[in-house]
Structures are given as C-alpha cells and as structure tokens.
C-alpha cells in the first residue's frame, strides 16, 4: 500500500511540474501532504515536514546568501573583466562557449560537490549566454552533464555504494575509469553539437556574419576585418553601482570564500554569510546602498529559498512515512530469476530514471543492497550492481531530480523553470547514462 501511494505521489508530482499544471512550490508542498493524509498519517505529517525542512535549512540558507553575495560582487563589476577575457578566449562562438562551460564545471566539480559546482560555474558563464542570446537551458544542461558524469571516489553515490556493500570504494571505481572516459567524450560532443546548433540559430555560422567580425566596404571591395567583441554597454544605474577599483579586492574575497568552502573547513552557508557581509561593507559602506543592494536581489533569493524549503517538505514526508523504503522493497520483487544475469545491465539502463523516484539514501541504503544480495545468491558479483547504479542513479540523474536541492540550484541560477529544464535535459542525461552502461558492458565491467 505504501509503495503504491509513494509511486502515485511521485508520478503526480512529476506530471504536475513537467506539464506546468502546478508551480514547483505548490506541487512540492501540496502533493506529498495530500498523500500523507490519504495514507492515514494525520497530524504526524507535520513532524515529517519539520524534519525535512530542518535537513534542507542549511542548503536554503546557503542559496539565499549565495544569491546576495554573487549579486553584490556582480553589481560592483567583478564579472565585467572576467567576461571580457573569456570572450576574447572563446570569441563569440557558441560551440566554444558550451565546451568551455562543460570544462569549467568539470574542473570545479573535482571536489565532488554539485552545489559548489553550480554556484561557481553558472554565475560565471551566465552573462556570456545572456550577452549572446544563447539558450540558458543549454547552460543548465552543460553543467549538469559535467557534474553528473564526474562520479569520483569521494562523491556521494560512490561513498554510499561502498558503505552499503562494505567494500573499498576503489573496487567499485577503478574498473569504471575507462567507462567514465567514454562518458566525458559523449558530454563534450553533445556540448559542441549544441553550440554549433546555437550558432546556426543565432546566424553566426557564416564567418562573415559571426559576431566579433566587421565588414568595411571601400573602393577596393569588401574587407573582412576581425575586431574584438563589442564592449558591454552599461546603463546609468549600473555605472552608478560599479566599483572597478575594487575588482581585485572582490576577486580575492570571492576566491578565498570559494577555496575555504571547497576545502570543507567551514560550512558553505557560513562562508556565504560572511562573504555577503564583507562584500556589502567593502563595496557599499553607506547603509542605504547596502539596503538597496540586498533589496535588488531579495526577490530571487526568497523565491528559490521557498522552493528549497518546499523540497524539504516533500523529502521529509516521503522519508518519514516510509513510502520511499516501501517502494524500494517492492521494486526488487519484480525481477524474474531467469533474468538474473541481465540485472546489472538493466539496472544501468534504469539507473538514471530511478533518480526521479528515489533519493540517494533510499536507493543506495535501501534498494541497492537488496538487489545486490539477490544477484549474489544467483551467482553474480554484487559490486557490479553498485557499478551499474552509479552510472546514472543520482550521478547524471541528480541535476534533474526533484529529490535533490541541487536541481533547484541549477534552475534558480540559470533563471529557467524546473519543467523546461527537465524536458530539455533529461533526454541528454539519460543518453549519457545509456552510453556509459553500454561501454561498461562492452569493456567487460558488467555483463550484458
């Protein structure tokens, strides 16, 4: 009963969001509450909600102050020279920009934190996409692919897999190195092709029509002379709040905050709180201007914080009612014994969609050990179940799953809707998972 109720809740939630029948805020709160009440949990539902909100609060706080911090240093002009330098390197070729976005996200995600990856990469690259009129869904996809395929031994799915099966994490990861290489090749190819598609859409495919080139017509004919990107035109209001003389101060402040956060010495929410205070005091010592800068970004911060807290309601209810656990236990009962040898390959194919149904703890600590034990009983190696799982479940799947706060970081920072992000990105992320699963079978990591 609980498993069916949980499945119905997930289906209704995803349908409501992806068809735009409900906003994510409304769906994440209303759907699970109705499900919990229908399941007979009554007033106990409020305890589940508080538990979920409590678990999500640090992430919500981090996001609020991250928006204000990046907003303040951007208002002060820190990003202007960086944008111009990147434009000089990648030019105005969308294919270079999409590949550069993917590479930057890949490098930043070396620490294993999807949230940090998105918080650093998206604000750095978004002005380029806005400036050229590129599709911001591609930005969301590129950072999602890079963070998803970059499943390293210290990332959440790897650590959970090793802990659940009580094996060294290297036993799971090392055979997947070549598979991960195939996945990286795939995502860079996708990024390049999407960039080329943007070039055609924006009319930049012709060398003489590409932005950054000019034609001068004289008596001798047409002379195509490359020039630099057009300088960014600021409004009088933007010029008023710019602090170009404080560029290096703001850059160093941002670098220190990022370094300490990535190193893990201090919680991200604390670092962004401190960073916001310092950025306001350094750039806008006048109290009135401080209030104006906070107000300028308060709407975006409040909107996304409310969605994150709503996500806490959803995960709190789904976990507290044991609906997720019941779903995990019921799912493994549908595997026919004669199909046992195909379980890893099938699981690899399904691993990415499973990110939409199970949070990482429920899957890796609830569902995966049961599947691994069944597979071991039938003569298989349980490690292959873990390897198949990490090829999609909360790796390439986590940036589109409503069960993870990182998904809302992506859409919030990119300024796109959750539904449009999921509809655009899921096919590519699923394809990446399938490509890696096939590669793993071909390379002998898991059986067909």
UniProtKB/TrEMBL annotation:
It comes from the Bacteria. PANTHER family: GNT FAMILY GLUCONATE TRANSPORTER (PTHR30354), TRANSPORTER, PUTATIVE-RELATED (PTHR30354:SF26). It comes from Azospirillum endophyticum. InterPro entries: Cit_transptr-like_dom, Citrate_transporter, Glcn_transporter. The chain crosses the membrane at residues 25-43, 55-73, 103-126, 138-156, 176-195, 246-262, 268-284, 296-319, 339-358, 426-446. Keywords: Membrane, Transmembrane, Transmembrane helix, Transport. This is Citrate transporter. Residues 16-392 form the Citrate transporter-like domain. It is a multi-pass membrane protein. Its main location: membrane. The keyword Membrane applies. It is found in: Membrane.
